[in-house]
Amino acid sequence: MEERLNFRNDLVDLPEFKVSDIKCKIKLDQNESPFRLPKRLRHHVLNLLKEKYSENLYPQPTDFFDKKKKVAEFLNIDPRRLTITAGADQGILGIMMISKEKVKLLDPSYPIYRNDAIVLKKKIDLAKLDEEDNFKITTEKIGKGYNFVGLLSPNQPVGNLIDDKVVAEACKNNDIVLMDEAYYEYSGKTYLNFQKEYKNLVILRTFSKAGSLAGLRLGYLIGDEGIISAVEKVLFTPYNISLMHFALLDNFEEIYGWGLEFGKRIRKIRDDFYNFLISSGFKAYESKGNFVLFKGRKKLYDDLLSNGIKTRYMNIHNKDYIRITIGRKDEMEVVKKQLTI
Ligand code: PMP
Fold first, then answer.
1. What domains sit in the chain, N to C, each tagged with a CATH number?
2. Is the pLDDT of residue 15 over 90?
3. Is the pTM of this model over 0.90?
4. Terminus-to-terminus CA distance in the chain, angstroms?
């Protein structure tokens, strides 16, 4: 019989999102938190799943709205301006699905933006950020007239913030502007207050980083009521998330507080590590995230890996870089020693 393996072959060229699965002693390659949630909180969430929620039933829209109300109250926003997603990744996909064709993305930045744009057949323009200018994001680079602009502050993998003026101009000059605040707890800087003036600005957050919940995929979007409602339609909310998310949302305040506290703790280790790199003669980029990017060859990445330290090797505009997630203090001491050899 004739085979009907007929599907989009343009996706063959889609860049793969590869992470090495080589075993290591110190895992500093995916910007995760090195700590688990406090045991008491973990048990509480699991107990809710056992006792309060029935896994044989779907998440119900009315229950979902109640959860949103509680979270929104805590964040001091209208619940209709909030939606919950399975990780920030799903938020990025949802917001891009409702955007029109012309998109502008930062280069370098988090690769999923480009992947989603390719999958959704967008017309993509890249704002190529200059290494000589420390990958600075400017109004000229962002440009005008786009249906979607993906901004990240701090940008990833560099770690730099975007000037307020540049964000304001981006909102004035374009349609939907997504501000990715995945590393907000490490930077302490948010653009939430900009939404009063710029209705087209959408804020993206996640609990995967400082929130220490990467494996449970909890993220959220805050934006204009109409935009959020459209995103919920395309993602089929609340069926895009699970009762595990509900149990987590029942503990939103506490998890949020834990993330903020942890984010603050990491900042000092990060700044110390950056200073170490600079004083050791590396070209490093000042970061407001939980990672630091520096110039380093693949050989250095391999050496670190063979000593049990997994980092991320990156080729940006044909140059070699290493991005290293900031781990515990003791882990960073091991890294420093290895880099001094
Ligand atoms: N945005 C940025 C900038 C990220 O680095 C990541 C994770 N690598 C995400 C979004 C996605 O996070 P999540 O795990 O919540 O999908």
1. 9-38+265-340 (3.90.1150.10), 55-255 (3.40.640.10)
2. no
3. yes
4. 63
